[in-house]
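Researcher: We're teaching a course module on how sequence relates to structure. For the next exercise, students receive a sequence and then see the predicted structure as tokens, so they can try to spot secondary structure elements on their own. Here is the exercise chain.
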Amino acid sequence: MFTIREISELAVQIEVNGEAVYREVASKVSDSALREMLEGMAHDEHQHAGWFKRLGADQLASVQEADEALEAMGRALLAEMLGTQTFSLSAEELGDAGSLAEVIAQAEEFEKDTIVFYEMLADFVADTEVASQLRDIIAEEYVHIDRLNGYLAG
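Model: And here is the predicted structure for the students to work with:
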């Protein structure tokens, strides 16, 4: 179902999607603090996408030849782990939200789904430097959640 290259491409798409939506919503909000926060998050997502684009499939994991049954089992596990994650965030959905709290909740859910995926991906990373950089990205995604919650509470 998923190859290492497909997983890397999915990570790029997640980040590109997040950047585009945060930028679009930022361009439509009147609150300067919210706009600045969203633009900052968009910048982070852009940086994350660039990092994933620079990674080669060989850097994501040291994959040895496995028999078809083992490979199928791994793919089934990955599909199960990602099955409930949508990895989608759209400006229309955010724009249709009835309140600021709903906007924040939708963005937070997107960030949480991304974290789940990256934490799962980290389990397949053999290169310690790449694993460290991936953990840094995960930490930044947690910061996004904190910013969203801080804005709502503030």
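Model: If you want an answer key for the exercise: The domain at 4-153 is CATH 1.20.1260.10 (Ferritin). Confidence is low (pLDDT under 50) at residues 61-67.
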